[in-house]
Amino acid sequence: MVVATDNYPSSNARRIPPTNISPNTILELEKGDPVVFEKYWKKRSEECSVVIRGWELMSYLGDAKNDVCWYMLPEVERGIRRLHHVVGNAVTHDAHIVVGTGATQLFQAAVFALSPPHSSKPINVLAAAPYYSEYQDEISILRSGLYQWGGDAASYEKNEPYIEVITSPNNPDGTIRGPVVKSEAKGKLVYDLAYYWPQYTPITHQADHDLMLFTFSKCTGHAGSRFGWAVVKDIEVARKMTRYVQMSSIGVSKESQTRVAKIIGVVCDGYQNFGSMESELYFEYSKRLLRERWGKLWAVIDESKLFSVARYPMAFCNFTNESSEPSPGFIWLKCEEGIEDCESYLLGKLKIRARGGKRFGVDSKYARISLIGTDGDFNEFLKRISNA
Amino acid sequence: MVVATDNYPSSNARRIPPTNISPNTILELEKGDPVVFEKYWKKRSEECSVVIRGWELMSYLGDAKNDVCWYMLPEVERGIRRLHHVVGNAVTHDAHIVVGTGATQLFQAAVFALSPPHSSKPINVLAAAPYYSEYQDEISILRSGLYQWGGDAASYEKNEPYIEVITSPNNPDGTIRGPVVKSEAKGKLVYDLAYYWPQYTPITHQADHDLMLFTFSKCTGHAGSRFGWAVVKDIEVARKMTRYVQMSSIGVSKESQTRVAKIIGVVCDGYQNFGSMESELYFEYSKRLLRERWGKLWAVIDESKLFSVARYPMAFCNFTNESSEPSPGFIWLKCEEGIEDCESYLLGKLKIRARGGKRFGVDSKYARISLIGTDGDFNEFLKRISNA
């Protein structure tokens, strides 16, 4: 069924451009490698170049004066605060910044920092299903005595302290979320806001939580840099997170840090300097890219008898000053009657590698598919599901 | 007592150059920040420059064809193998390379990979005292059910499986080591060869162990890059280590990787290209730097009634084709009679921050002091201990 809820930029959404991918090639859409944004950075290539000379950035130290996160370069901290100020997606003025080797390392640092250090039993770490598929393994891999995976937050009924991870917009399904645990027990909250950027979802408010995680990978698409940051109100929690990163990897690559500072600077300059062309600004451009893809996707899904995707509510974005639907980085596909295992069906029939619902704690009728890969892969994906 | 065991390059070792550090300033020599090598890289600055453009290195992937370490750039693997071939310090031809965010992350990856996954009790991780001060905390921080800190390998008597870490040359004391556990039980070995490079110690043989760890920090002095590598014979162990790094940080900074490949390339080119001036080659230059410092240090220590340092045996280095004493990156200082706590004495009386023996599992009469800091700090250190 066609539901016209939003105006998508492409006027010919139904035309799927030809690709030169053989129908026998497996489409690798299981991971969320954000290469869609590469074409923007090609336009900004020289402006964003960093040159690192042989003798530079040799020390472990980033800023001897920083008594919270000693390995962070000062320009990185300034850049992060400036970016949140420009976008208006998070309050940082009364919080500390801790950087990590991606949000993956910082998620573990946060759980470590919030776990009671002397408890006789591990604290439960929860997330509402469908939850990010890697949380469980990251929490469980070392069989820690400090914390353990506690499963779906919505069905948690123990009267024991817990840590709830709130992923918003959610990975895999792009929904906006708040805490869901109903237990009377005291819980600590970690907000994973990796996708709370204007290209993915309307910025409806400045997030202002005790502990928020962000990552460069999903903000600008530079996943190879392995760089993330936490915005943390309690200085002791921030220090414990820093201690975790120190024990885990003695800090964060200075090469990545210097590049992050450069690229964030270029993004912010675009918004703050007179004379920038709005359509060429990073978040406008990247939002347009994703909305074009979603427009094409809806055109296919609306005609499909085999697959469906839940609609997202419109919302007003304070950053772009317009109402729109979200345009998440993943497609959370549901197979209709007759197909019980969506992942297997996609791989077996269509040679599309997706990540099945079970990995996210839900039914195998669902599968997650990356929307942020190459143009070729995305168009081939559309072709295959529209012919299915 | 003066013992002339070696010819040190500086003819006026006893002259300590003046510094402009105030006697009230605390000298920070507790960490091993390898900034001494900066002056070499200033000479090679442009040659070693990397330029990273805005759109480059965006993917999580390093090499889709690598079925062991998928996030490693191919040029990094080639560079690592080439470097070991040039230096002759390790056999790599029948082994896999796994890269990590410093040897710190890889040490934990190694212990994870070697721990029995389904054992009812954690395996003991051991190292002979004095051992690297961070092993214990890295092993203990998450109270893992897979492994636990087992203390001094020399006094291990349990008839249970174990993992022994062999650090050679050793941190803190620079000695050459082999396994020491006498137990009948079966042990697995991890060789931490961070300092097995020609500037620190004669290269007497090609190390050829099942699992060897190296780090860029101590090889070239680029500690800020947070880059290390493991040479691993068993493909399943290598894959488990990769899995650990994936769970911990989804790989390793591509910016660091691209710089590592560049700098290793410049080092190797120097040795393999016709016309290089030997004294300007990296290992010759850096060895000279450290030997100059050791020459000055011996001149002071030999006159000291308060402090002593154990002598190292001479050995023939296959790489430099000469016999010499080692020139370790740390001074393992022993306080003589009357001073029970070396760390406290140094800090209280001489305003020198060192790391005390207790942290390394031995007597507090010992303390570790970095020899690889700035010229100013090193000379000020000499002045203070010679006046003590």
UniProtKB/TrEMBL annotation, chains A, B:
It comes from the Eukaryota. The keyword Glycoprotein does not apply. InterPro entries: Alliinase_C, Ethylene_sulfur-biosynth, PyrdxlP-dep_Trfase, PyrdxlP-dep_Trfase_major, PyrdxlP-dep_Trfase_small. Transmembrane segments: none annotated. GO terms for biological process: amino acid metabolic process. Keywords: Pyridoxal phosphate. CDD domains: AAT_like. The keyword Transcription does not apply. One of its GO terms (molecular function) is transaminase activity. Homodimer. Belongs to the alliinase family. This is Alliinase C-terminal domain-containing protein.
